Amino acid sequence: MRAVQSAENFQNKMAMEGVPGSLGTSVGFSLRIGQTLFSSASLLFMSLGVEFYSYSAFCYLVTTMGLVIPWSCTLAVLDGYSVVVKCPVRQPGILFIIAAGDWVLSVLTLAAACSTASVVDLLFQTSSSFCTPKCCSRYQLSAAMAFLTWFLSLASALLNLWLLPSS
Amino acid sequence: MRAVQSAENFQNKMAMEGVPGSLGTSVGFSLRIGQTLFSSASLLFMSLGVEFYSYSAFCYLVTTMGLVIPWSCTLAVLDGYSVVVKCPVRQPGILFIIAAGDWVLSVLTLAAACSTASVVDLLFQTSSSFCTPKCCSRYQLSAAMAFLTWFLSLASALLNLWLLPSS
């Protein structure tokens, strides 16, 4: 009986305070900040001073990062506000939209990162006329940053999915 | 009170019979058969009579499909057996392993499909010397089959994840 009660207490505590990393917690805020930083870095490495628009995989990466950055920024602001006023968002509708958005963006980010990485690898192998060493290393860095964005995005998506049934 | 009872009945019924598409149901069996067929088709289009080993993205696709085929075959046999004897597997340990395996393979399949698609697109755009029309269409078909495998694999993974907390 006591075990059941303590399990219930634990569940209520988790539901009230939120799983670490989910919406409205300080770990969640750090995850969003990380996503914003890595996706911005990926976008900058890909688009500044490099002719990315001749390859469709690179255009796709730029488009995806252009979606991830405003999404992560908005949720970082929301998380920061929730942490400061200590009142996390717990409306099931909003949680569902955020969880679904996280999943979709996580899949898109993984697809973009894999496409970029495979195209860079092919350009690197084929010949140096398509891609100078300076360009190639920037493309590689951009793909690496996209993979890091995906890791953090997946973590957010999993933790918000965990929170969904308890709301 | 009646609403709570009927919700509980529904939940018990779902836990006993399984969500359609999860482990041990006929929809789950169809999903596994579909995964096996599409992944075999992807592997055959890529490997028979085409020099796939000169591109690392294509080697990665072949490796991933080599993992997906035995996994889907084994689970198709398990599902078929469960449907025939009407006794689905409900041990939490086994369910957890199957759900985790489904997720990992689903991510790997998406990565392989995206890499292959982007490399095929690049080869197609660059010049016809790298890839004759016959080869290119086979690569494209292989990538399309890999995407279909990913769709079915994601469906299995989501439905098994749904089943996990109720076991």
UniProtKB/TrEMBL annotation, chains A, B:
Compartment(s) of residence: Cell membrane
Task: One Pfam family, please name it.
Answer: CASP_dom
User: What membrane topology does the annotation report for this chain?
Assistant: Multi-pass membrane protein
- TM helices/strands, residue ranges: 57-78, 93-120, 141-164
- Organism domain of life: Eukaryota
Asked if the Swiss-Prot or TrEMBL record annotates the protein with the keyword Transmembrane, the reply is yes
Keywords associated with the record? Cell membrane, Membrane, Transmembrane, Transmembrane helix
Q: Which residues form the Casparian strip membrane protein domain?
A: 23-152
State the GO CC annotations. Answer: plasma membrane
Q: Which InterPro entries does the record associate with it?
A: CASP_dom, CASPL-5
Claim: ATP-binding is one of the keywords in the record: no
- How is this protein organized at the quaternary level? Homodimer and heterodimers.
What PANTHER family does its record include? CASP-LIKE PROTEIN 5B3 (PTHR32021), CASP-LIKE PROTEIN 5C3 (PTHR32021:SF32)
Q: Which family does it belong to?
A: Belongs to the Casparian strip membrane proteins (CASP) family.
Supply the name of the protein: CASP-like protein
Query: What is the native source organism of this protein?
Result: Gossypium hirsutum (Upland cotton)
The major lineage groups are:
Eukaryota, Viridiplantae, Streptophyta, Embryophyta, Tracheophyta
UniProt gene name: LOC107922397
